[in-house]
Amino acid sequence: MLLVMNDRSPVLIILALGWCLFTSFWGTSQESFCIPSEEQVWGSPYPGLGNVRPSPTDPFLSPPSARMLYADEESYSELSPTMRSGDLYLSRHPNNKRTGIFQKFNSHTLWVPVNSSKGLGMTEIDLSAMLALPMPTPDSPLLLTPKFSATFLDTKNDGSETFYTTGLSMRWIRPIAKDKFTMDFGMSVLYSGDFHVRAGDALRLPSHAAGIWNLNPRTKLVVGVVYADRKDNYNWFPMAGLIWTPNEDVSVELLLPRLRIAQRIRWFGSAAGDEQSDWLYTAFEFGGGSWGYEPIDGRVEYSDWRLLLGYERRTRRGSTLGIEVGYMFERKMTNFGPEYPSDSVFLRLRSSF
Q1: Among 40, 254, 315, 329, which one is least packed by beta carbons within 10 Å?
Q2: Contact by Cβ (8 Å): 300, 333
Q3: Residues facing 348 on adjacent strands
């Protein structure tokens, strides 16, 4: 494609950018700019489906739908379609939508103790933000997620090491066929290493492609693939399964390789009119990481499987606070510490606003 520049081109570009920013922050004269609900696309990566009062007379009550597939690689799992967009929370509910570019800030902390001579301790701190651009339209947004995480690994016999992951995730959502089918594409450009390794060993380009069929208002079928950009056996994964929300109090995600069942245990409102809901859930998921490591001039690969129980409080205004306890097993590490670390318990704290 050939782009011809003329004397008016800079002016047109400035006007186009200005219009984009104007519609992003203030909305058009027809409707405030609001990215379509991620809940309408994937569902909640964590419980929180049905943030509105469970009453059939509530005009804003709609069947919760699948918003997110896996927890996300940078955030809670090595297998997120969005590579750490698991905490996105976009909604059209009046008290829970953000009409500007900024949509969400997320953080989580994971702690795993060193419990034996073959133990592998881990502390992970992860920060990310989500920005949304109406490109080309608010109903087909471009989601940008800058992120930074630090992972501190510790062993009794081989010392400790710190790895970092930073970069940008890009995701494009395209509903078609009157929202009966949605396409979801994403790719991340990440530096993942110890800040000493050469760039080629630290560069990662994880990506995903998926299709979501709305079989009915409460059931979605998901088919796709995830490319994790790892050097071990966990490089490609299928993305397939069923997400079912029989009512506003229950969410069942039968997805490979992540399963989650959530139950809302309480709903209450405050004098200020802010509604809150408490959820309990159990999940089985894949976790891990891949980092460039200067001493070996290559990559350190880590993987595990996790069974966990969690509690989450979610408000209608979009903020969340959660705690999870779980058990790690089938752990494997290459090029650092014990090759097969011992099983371990873990604790994870999450927050977003």
Answers
A1: 329
A2: yes
A3: 110, 324
